[in-house]
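Hi,

I'm pasting everything inline rather than attaching a file, because the server keeps stripping attachments. The sequence lines come first, and each chain or strand is labelled.
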Amino acid sequence: MAADEPITAVIVDDHAAIAAGVHFWCSQAVPPIDLIDAGDRLADVWTGPGALADVVIFDLELVPRRPDFGELRRLVDSGRRVIVYSQHTDDATAIKCIDLGALAYLTKREGPDHLVPAIRAGARGEPYTAPSLSGALIADDDPGRPRLSQRETEVLRAWFVSSSKDLVAAKLNITVKTVDTYITRVRVKYANVGRAARTKSELVGRALDDGLITLAELNRTVTSL
Amino acid sequence: MSDTAEEVTRAELRHGLRIATLLVAMAVVFGLGLAQLLRYMDRYETPLTQWIAFAALGAVLAGEATLLGLGRSWGRLRGPAIAIVLGASALSYVTLPDGRTSTGVDWIFGAANWVGIVVLLDRPLRTAAAFLVAHELTALLHLLLLDDPSRADLARFSTGSVTVVGFPLCVAVVAAVMRGLSAAAATSRREIERVRLAEAVAAESHGRRQQRLAELSATTIPLLEGLADGSLRPEDPVVQRRCAIEAARMRRLFAEADDVADPLLHELRHCIDVADRKGVVVELDTRGQWPEPPVAVRRDLTEAVLIVLATTVSRARVTVMGEAGLVSVSVVADCAETGMPSPAAPGVQVEALTNDDMVWMEARWQPTSRSPR
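And the predicted assembly:
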């Protein structure tokens, strides 16, 4: 993808109103994002213009109450950058999605303030952590979860509570950039555990290259049982 | 005397009456009845049928003795037992020599009545009376149909009937009176309990209403008085804000009486609802678990939300987080500068942060730091 070309995204969602709403947000974004509407046809994500889109916006429940983790895994395994867009708000589903390799997990209550940044981050292969996912990460008490530092937990907590990075920065006396760094570090730590996926290893590799986290820190994060 | 002691006494009385009746019946059947049977053995046409009738009565008495030992009543066996008694009576009369009704030869006339009463002692009086009448009729039928009764025979039968029906009936009446007393006592005890409960509920709700009034009198009543006498103007934004806060406080106060699984969240929803009605979009999100805070703590935790939402312009985010030893209620909203709540409960702290037009207020409660009650 050349730097001046617009970002393209494909949305697969059985609700026409959702697709139309997301289409509007993408066209209003600066710079605008090209959105391809696949409706409820998963095939359009794999073939035609949808196959070339930078980002896949994926409704986890095309069949009500049957979250399609299998399709999410196939998309991630074929190297697609996936944003899960779900009406589900339970923490276990959110964490499972990012464990499978989704770059972002957003609930449908989270509007353009989070979806548009998530699409831009996804196009760069970077994760985006919305407040709901942030809440899920703090509440995560799985024994296999990575160990977070106190500061990382504070930032996640403040981000979940306030839903504003400016407020988090003001509250903790740090810059917005530092807020982002802490949130990304948490995602890198999560990417380093659990199931292997290309998006996750890219995330870890880039974080190490950028000096966001050191190998020693990463090795220390796995909670010993 | 306590209720249980009364109940035990009554149960003992009933048990004693049952034993006494059984002993009387045994004495009548195995003493008098057997003696008459042996004495007039040569008078019966077929002594075997008399012995069968005697054995049937003996079996019913043995059954009663067994049930008494087990502490049980006749239950479903009661009907068959009565049928056996009446059957034995009929059998005895069919083979009784003519002209011998209610004489010494007619041993069963004064025996079967007692056996029947033993079986029917814990039944209503009319059942026992009906049985005695049935027994009496069996004898009377024998007298009228098979004998040719003289005036003397009828007189003998009548005097005999007085003891045969009268004494067992007396026992049945006593048993019925005792049951009636038990039932009346139980009814009046329930009534007393109901009245006591109603009084306690009335006192409790009166107390709660007075307490609510006292709580409202500090803040709501001066506001209402000010509006009534014109000293406070409804178009004044400060007055409007006070009204919004008082409306939310009243909603919270009413919600406090509800019996719900999570009172903190329940009361918070009521506080949010007031803002919701003004068109403010409020998100409520929660994570983790928390214990049920006491009402004073819940008020302090929800007060920040209530104050901020009173002046929120368009949107707000309310979150509740439960972590180890910490419950935190947080509100972020676009609102004008607000006053700080002053928490009264121990262990509650409130922090506020204003950034541009956004206000972030957080109330935290640490249950472990609370002094033990």
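Strands of chain A lie at 8-12, 34-37, 55-59, 81-86, 104-107.

If the labels don't parse on your end, tell me and I'll reformat.
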